[in-house]
Backbone:
């Protein structure tokens, strides 16, 4: 495997369970024990009610493309071979939005509102990135 | 005492700026200080009249409040730094107004200076660290999202968006201070490279060096100064930190509509009364968001609404008649508000908006967490 040259996530106290789950190919978010609110990105308390009692729950991995952009300009050498590459704002079925990428498709196939599902890209031995692919009718 | 009691009680009495574009022999702090001297000259105050100082941080560790205070040789009663990203200048004007009205200071100086062109600020950071693994660099991404979404929801076209850049370049051609002064056609725009599709090169602010400064005081004190005072008639502000939970964050509707409610209530005017608009246009879709969210046009209509010269000098609502950040200079909104003050004084030269008495300056910043606005009156 060629050396991975893109930026890696900075794993710290609050997001460690998120990245550990991704490594197991599980897509998770925090859910508040007090009010039931599901939220990302990871943090110390519920952003709805401030309770510190938070569980990690599996998400469906389903969502839609809220919007997206396609990078023609290179800002990081790790992405040289990817230009032009997409970055999408994905609306997850459970509520939060996340910034990720849609893989296994041409940029021209993308559209706002398309259904996507999570896939896992093993970037390094330690880090797996949740990304998304289009939900195709015949697959 | 409420916000409405602040209406017309505080004035911008001095503005100062430096050459814009490439100013290779000056640091950001030197440019801020050059602008400060120009602003003091503009209003006729002396350095030691100043008892309040705010400094906006800029690229390369410039704009540190304490360091700039030391260089100026000031002992201000009040001041500091404010972190509102691209809305910082707006927030500083608002804080200054509140402090002056409360009597904590008499004359407040606000400064911004940067040498980010000379020092090649590439704006290559991710919005948040967690976005970097996905290649989400540069602050334009939320604007690319917003415009793509606008196209999807309302059928808006790239040619319609081009009107923002073309309009502002037309204005810049009349502005000797503007860094971009070559004519721009629709063909030029459409054949330009994409940066983050659907945004092209001309949808991006033009990075420059330069400095800007404001001096503010109370309406009472303003009468004795050199230039006609420009009154802060209204101000509004809204933060939005629940970024991932606010589906319309990138469209800015929540935060800007909240600002609109506050500012129009304070100013006791409506959009129809405003004769010009300045938008902190780091990227051209910012103009769409401001027009729709402040109610100049219905949601989704900005692309069509701006056609036919409506936002040009001489049109129904001139927008960024200085050329804005796409064509004049990128000073995170400072230069727009500086131009607004000069317009209200009648110092607009060949770009003077006829009989202008009332206008608005809007700002946003960050991943769109920050929004603020000012209504200024002659
Ligand atoms: Zn909760």
Residues:
């Amino acid at each position: 495997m060629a050396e991975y040259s893109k930026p890696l996530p900075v794993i710290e106290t609050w997001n460690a369970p998120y990245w550990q789950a991704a490594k197991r190919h599980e897509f998770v978010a925090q859910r508040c024990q007090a009010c039931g609110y599901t939220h990302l990105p990871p943090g110390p308390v519920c952003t709805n009610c401030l309770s510190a009692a938070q569980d990690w729950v599996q998400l469906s991995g389903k969502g839609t493309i809220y919007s997206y952009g396609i990078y023609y300009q290179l800002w990081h050498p790790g992405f040289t071979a990817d230009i032009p590459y997409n970055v999408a704002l994905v609306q997850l079925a459970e509520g939060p939005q996340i910034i990720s990428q849609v893989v296994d498709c041409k940029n021209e196939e993308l559209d706002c509102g398309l259904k996507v599902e999570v896939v896992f890209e093993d970037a390094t031995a330690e880090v797996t990135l949740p990304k998304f692919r289009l939900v195709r009718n015949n697959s | 005492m409420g916000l409405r009691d602040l209406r017309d009680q505080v004035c911008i009495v001095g503005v100062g700026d430096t050459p814009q574009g490439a100013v290779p022999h000056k640091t950001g702090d030197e440019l801020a200080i050059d602008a400060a001297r120009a602003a003091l000259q503009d209003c006729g105050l002396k350095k030691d009249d100043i008892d309040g100082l705010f400094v906006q941080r800029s690229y390369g560790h410039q704009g540190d409040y304490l360091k700039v205070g030391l260089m100026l040789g000031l002992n201000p009663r009040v001041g500091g730094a404010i972190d509102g990203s691209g809305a910082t200048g707006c927030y500083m004007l608002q804080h200054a107004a509140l402090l002056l009205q409360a009597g904590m200071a008499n004359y407040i100086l606000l400064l911004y200076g940067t040498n980010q062109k000379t020092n090649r600020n590439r704006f290559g950071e991710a919005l948040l660290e967690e976005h970097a693994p996905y290649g989400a660099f540069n602050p334009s991404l939320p604007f690319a999202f917003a415009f793509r979404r606008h196209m999807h929801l309302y059928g808006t076209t790239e040619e319609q968006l081009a009107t923002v850049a073309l309009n502002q370049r037309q204005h810049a051609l009349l502005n000797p201070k503007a860094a971009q002064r070559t004519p721009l056609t629709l063909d030029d725009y459409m054949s330009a490279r994409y940066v983050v599709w659907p945004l092209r090169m001309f949808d991006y602010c033009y990075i420059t060096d330069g400095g800007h400064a404001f001096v503010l005081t109370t309406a009472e004190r303003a009468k004795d100064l050199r230039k006609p005072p420009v009154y802060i008639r209204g101000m509004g502000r809204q933060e939005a930190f629940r970024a991932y939970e606010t589906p319309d964050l990138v469209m800015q509707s929540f935060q800007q509509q909240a600002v609109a409610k506050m500012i129009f209530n304070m100013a006791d005017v409506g959009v129809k009364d405003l004769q010009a608009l300045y938008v902190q246009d780091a990227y051209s879709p910012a103009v769409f968001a401001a027009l729709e969210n402040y109610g100049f046009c219905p949601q989704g209509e900005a692309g069509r609404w701006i056609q036919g010269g409506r936002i040009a000098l001489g049109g129904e609502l001139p927008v960024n008649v200085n050329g804005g950040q796409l064509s004049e200079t990128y000073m995170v909104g400072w230069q727009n508000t500086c131009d607004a003050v000069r317009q209200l004084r009648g110092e607009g030269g060949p770009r003077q908006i006829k009989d202008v008495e009332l206008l608005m300056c809007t700002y946003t910043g960050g991943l769109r967490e920050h929004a603020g606005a000012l209504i200024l009156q002659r």
In short: Chain A has a mean pLDDT of 95. Chain A has two domains: 13-58, 61-139.
